[in-house]
Every structure is written in C-alpha cells, then in structure tokens.
C-alpha cells in the first residue's frame, strides 16, 4: 500500500518536469514553468489534506471502527461526480476543437497504452529471477499503471492555468481513467484465476518431499 501511494504521488509530481520536456520534444515550443508556485499549490491541494486526514484519524479511529461509515460508497460517489463534472466542463467548452475521428483515435491510443503498460509490468514482475509473489504481481500490474482524475485534473489546472486549450489537453486523462476501470473489470477474473493457480503451484513446489523407503 505504501509503495502504491508513493508511485501515484511520485509519478504525478514527476509530470511537472516531464510535461514541459515532452511539449518541447513533440511540439518544438518552450515555456517557463513556475515550479515554486506549482509545488506550493500542489502541496496545499494534495499533501496538506493527506496530513490532516492522518492526524484526525488517530483521534477518531476507534469511533470509525465502531460505526464503520460507508467510506467505499462515499469514495465511489465522489469519484463519479469528479468524472462527470470534468466531462461536462471539458466538452461544454466552445473552444474545444475535437472531431469524432480524432476522439476515436485517442481512445484507441489510450487503450493500447494501457494494455502495453499492463503487459510489460506483468512480464517484469514474473521473470525468472523475480522475488515477487503472485499477489505482488497483481498489485504491480494494477497500481503501477493507475492514474487518477482526482489528482490529474487539479495538476493540469495548476500547471496550465489560463491556457485556452486546457479542456483539449484534459481529454486523454478523461479517457485514461475510465479505460483503466473498464480494463480492470474485464481482466480481474483472468488475473485472479492466474494468481490462484500460481499460488497453488508454488505451494506444491515448496512442500518437502516424502523420504523414499528402500
């Protein structure tokens, strides 16, 4: 869990450095990025709520364990609302110039990237000299390829504040997030079956062999 949280946070903050480099590489245009302002806003948006939540949790942990609020349902509803409002904000913008063919191409590219990343992480975590367990492999495949709108959209709004084509550059992330949910739902039965069979095979290989009587 700690590794997954670190991967998500580190990957998002790394985007602040990688994004301008990619713009320079693919578009040939350069721009100045106010790192101090961006990091301070991200710190207030992402890190401070996390710290406050951890502090408050220490004092209400027992109450939460007794009452067991439906945090799963609340989290899903909030995430669904963020996705819905972001979609509305993006496609309601009159400045967005995206035809249907381009949208289909973007969807195809996003799904291809998703499948490629998941396949590469699966190969990496199941190689012969790997020390990862089957459960570790499942966590790696899903967590290392995960990007969330809850952090991605605020980052885009901070990094590209005032940019007239902000809605347009938000489209890949809007597609990426539902795509990973859809692919995850489709792959869960297959990956679960592989994990269970792999765990049983490992248990059989680790069992001590009975001595042979002569």
From TrEMBL:
Signal peptide: none
This protein's UniProt keywords: Membrane, Transmembrane, Transmembrane helix
Entry GO CC: plasma membrane
Listed transmembrane segments: 5-26, 38-59, 71-92, 104-125, 137-160, 166-188
InterPro entries found in the cross-reference section: Na+/solute_symporter_sf (IPR038770), Put_Na-Bile_cotransptr (IPR016833)
The organism's place on the tree of life at top rank: Eukaryota
The family this protein is said to belong to: Belongs to the bile acid:sodium symporter (BASS) (TC 2.A.28) family.
Protein name: NTCP7 protein
UniProt source species: Cephalopterus ornatus (Amazonian umbrellabird)
């Amino acid at each position: 869990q700690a590794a997954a949280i670190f991967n998500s946070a580190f990957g998002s903050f790394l985007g602040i450095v990688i994004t301008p480099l990619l713009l320079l590489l693919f578009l040939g245009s350069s721009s100045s990025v106010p790192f101090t302002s961006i990091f301070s806003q991200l710190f207030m948006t992402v890190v401070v709520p996390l710290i406050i939540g951890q502090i408050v949790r220490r004092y209400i942990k027992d109450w939460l364990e007794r009452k067991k609020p439906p945090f799963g349902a609340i989290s899903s509803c909030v995430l669904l609302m963020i996705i819905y409002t972001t979609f509305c904000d993006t496609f309601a913008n009159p400045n967005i110039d995206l035809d249907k063919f381009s949208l289909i191409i973007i969807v195809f590219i996003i799904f291809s990237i998703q499948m490629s990343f998941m396949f590469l992480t699966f190969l990496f975590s199941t190689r012969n000299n790997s020390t990862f367990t089957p459960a570790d492999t499942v966590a790696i495949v899903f967590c290392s390829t995960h990007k969330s709108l809850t952090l991605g959209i605020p980052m885009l709004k901070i990094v590209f504040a005032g940019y007239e084509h902000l809605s347009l550059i938000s489209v890949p992330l809007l597609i990426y997030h539902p795509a990973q949910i859809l692919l995850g739902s489709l792959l869960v039965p297959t990956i679960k079956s592989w994990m269970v069979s792999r765990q049983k095979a490992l248990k059989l290989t680790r069992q001590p062999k009975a001595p042979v009587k002569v």
